[in-house]
Design brief:
Helix content: over 70%
Strand content: 5-15%
Mean pLDDT: 80
Structural class: mainly alpha
Order of helices and strands: HHHEEHHHHHH
Number of helices: 9
Largest sheet: 2 strands, antiparallel
Oligomer: single chain
Low-confidence stretches: 89-102, 104-114
Strand order of the largest sheet: 1-2
Length: 260
């Protein structure tokens, strides 16, 4: 199979299919288990850390040396950070406290729960997820030059499922038709294909391969450490289990690196 076709298929399976699966779960399951989502995020984050530290960065250094590796990594971090700033959401809830015979009781209440605002929230998440899927595609395309494109595809599939879920839940609650919810969930992963194709052509220029690998590593490190792991720990109080499965994800990559 031609390398470009393989990259496109892997990116499509990870991004589009992964997001669509998350959308289907969001439509069918009214209250997905937060523990399940946190474990999924933890494992994917660990695998992303392992790929970045044990595959992409060492290969980038070998290909181009220290400066392309550092510059590429920094650009990856800055890119994802910038995307996060552009798509940052305001807090949609506030703490309401009331007096009861037993004392003061405080609870979190959603203040913007009408259908229009829920729909806007879903669209905002959709835009953020679509932008975030681009570096994942870049990583798949760059990783294919190292023979780990399929492995990255599996890892990112696990990452895209909760992203599709995050899009579907508020959209469905807003009254949006099911087919539109699923379509948006799937389309959110489409930029991964674009990123994978771009990485393929960048990698064909040997002098740019080091930057491409490091960029993918920087983006993955930032997403894993600043978004996925904090979300995983916030979603569930089973911290030891989340830590264990995160280490398992990273250990899997180490084993793969040694075997290969």
């Amino acid at each position: 199979m031609p390398m470009l076709l393989r990259i496109v298929l892997i990116a499509f399976g990870a991004g589009v299919v992964g997001s669509l699966v998350g959308g289907i779960i969001g439509v069918i399951v009214k209250k997905p288990s937060k523990t399940y989502i946190s474990l999924l995020l933890g494992f994917a984050a660990g695998a992303m850390l392992g790929v970045s530290l044990f595959e992409l960065l060492p290969e980038s250094f070998q290909e181009g040396g220290i400066w392309p590796t550092l510059i590429g990594t920094l650009l990856g971090v800055v890119f994802v950070f910038g995307v996060g700033l552009l798509s940052k959401e305001k807090n949609e809830s506030e703490i309401i406290c009331t007096e009861t015979p037993q004392g003061e009781v405080c609870q979190k209440t959603i203040t913007k729960s009408d259908k229009r605002k829920l729909k806007r929230m879903g669209i905002t998440i959709f835009i953020a997820m679509a932008l975030h899927s681009l570096p994942e595609g870049l990583a798949i395309g760059a990783g294919e030059y190292l023979g780990i494109g399929l492995l990255l595809g599996v890892v990112f599939f696990l990452h895209f499922v909760p992203e599709g879920l995050a899009i579907a839940v508020p959209m469905k609650a807003s009254g949006t038709k099911t087919w539109k919810v699923l379509l948006l969930s799937a389309v959110a992963g489409l930029p991964a294909v674009v990123g994978a194709i771009a990485a393929y052509y960048i990698g064909m220029v040997s002098s740019l391969l080091s930057y491409s690998l490091a960029f993918a590593a920087g983006a993955m490190l930032y997403v894993a450490l600043s978004e996925m792991l904090p979300t995983a720990y916030n979603y569930s109080n089973r911290y030891k289990l989340i830590s264990a499965i995160t280490l398992a994800g990273a250990f899997l990559i180490v084993i793969f690196s040694v075997v290969m």
